[in-house]
Amino acid sequence: MAAAPTEDPTPSATSDLPLAKRRKRDDPSYLETWPVTPATAAAGGWSSLPDDLVRRIADSFLATNDLDHYMCLRAVCPSWRAATDDPKNNTFDTRFSPRTWIILDEQHDDDHELLLLNVATGRFLRKKLPLLREYYIVATTPNGSFILADRSPPHAARLFNPLTGVLTRFVAPVPPDATVANVASLAIILLGDSSRKVYTAVPRREGFNARDYQQGLYNFFRKAVVGGAYSHVSGAAFGDVVAKLFDLLRLLYVDPVKCFSSDYLGDANDVRCFIVGLDAHMLLVMIICGSPSVIKVNTETGSIGPMHNISRFAIFIGHRRCLAVDTNRFPGIEANCLYYTEHLGSSARICKYNLKDCKEEVISEAAEFMKQDKQFILIADRPFTIIHLLCSYTINILDSQLVLQQMS
User: Fold this and answer.
1) How far is CA 131 from CA 36, 113, 140, 386, 401, in A?
2) Distance between alpha carbon 298 and the CA centroid of its chain, in Å?
3) Quick one: which of 148, 321, 359, 389 is 20 to 30 A from 113 by CA?
């Protein structure tokens, strides 16, 4: 009697297939496909991620201030929302405040689509903000927030975070001459150029506290705000630092009131001063007879001294604003250099100054900007580089829509 054949414990992959299908499966040219996993099953798997893992992913977005990514993560499913904090319930939590963003094209179109840039990571973000059409835009802050005013009197102030969509309502009406803004802790800070006042308010306060400044000190403080150095303009030695800076300018036969003015363009024989925040330092950038120099200011100790190396950073200087960027994030920008705009009457061009070899060069012999009303507009018959965009940011600040409305 013949022995029974040994059974293969592994079932045949083709034993139960019809002959035609077995031939296709045996054909090397046959492309095998697998059953498609239902989308609901995949979503269910993602939604079951442990809460601590979801929070670690969310924290990675907060670490780079990519708040738009954080909001997208929270929108995936209810379990992810439950595992993470809601910015609407934490209005003044610094984790959810723009810190490293600038708004490149404040001159928005009817769609209110704006271009934002994370200067710490080099990431661009184009975002539609239809809510802006419901308010007057008073100012943008150096960190990427909007200060708005109600369209109806008394024009109460609003703080708008474009990355989270959170709108914080203030009781206090916006001062009529406010043109520059910043945010600190629970307060918004507005500067009025015509009155030389600095206004501060918190959400439930009925009005802004106003503080008067002498013209020179107001101009200095304003430059510190628009240059991103506001957080460093503090400390017990701040008054001494300002006094030393003003004495230094007088030694150069320069009027501090004039050279810190936001509207002062200067010429080849003048001194222009800019205040820049850089990596936890406050820097004074001076252009003397067309040649820039950098002075490091320590507001805690009162010390002032020259700075010949800003390492991997580059500084962009315009007569309206200043900005420091990490060139490791922007390959087209040269490190240890100052980029600034040279005004040629109704036009302007971009120059670069290397702090190491003291070499100055013009980026383009032709004008890069043409003046239209109060703004310098990039000439559109050429491609724009990151250098053009950052110089455009520093050369312009839009007027408050509320101020313009009241003037009309």
Assistant:
1) 41, 11, 15, 28, 15
2) 24
3) 321
Strand partners, 352: 339, 361
Domain that holds residue 202: 89-212
Rounded to a whole number, what is the distance in angstroms from the first to the last CA of the chain? 112
Tokens of 182: 């910043």
The residues facing 136 across adjacent strands are 149
CATH of the domain at 204: 2.40.128
Q: Which residue has the tokens 């009197």?
A: 153
8 is a domain residue: no
CA distance linking residue 188 with residue 171, whole number of Å: 12
The answer to whether residues 315 and 323 touch, using CB atoms and an 8 Å cutoff, is: yes
Mean pLDDT of residues grouped by 10 in the chain (408 residues)?
41 42 46 46 71 95 96 94 93 88 75 89 93 94 94 96 95 93 88 92 93 90 86 68 83 82 58 81 81 82 84 91 93 94 87 91 87 84 85 90 84
**Residue that terminates a domain, selected from 159, 185, 212:** 212
- Identify whether 278 is part of a domain: no
Token code pair at residue 106: 């404040």
Rg value, the chain, Cα: 29
Structure tokens at 180: 């520059």
Domain count for the chain: 2
User: Are 64 and 177 part of one and the same domain?
Assistant: no
- pTM of this prediction exceeds 0.85: no
Query: Quick check: 314 and 328 in contact, CB under 8 A?
Result: no
User: CA–CA distance from 398 to each of 137, 211, 217, 373 (Å)?
Assistant: 9, 24, 23, 11
Strand partners, 148: 137, 158
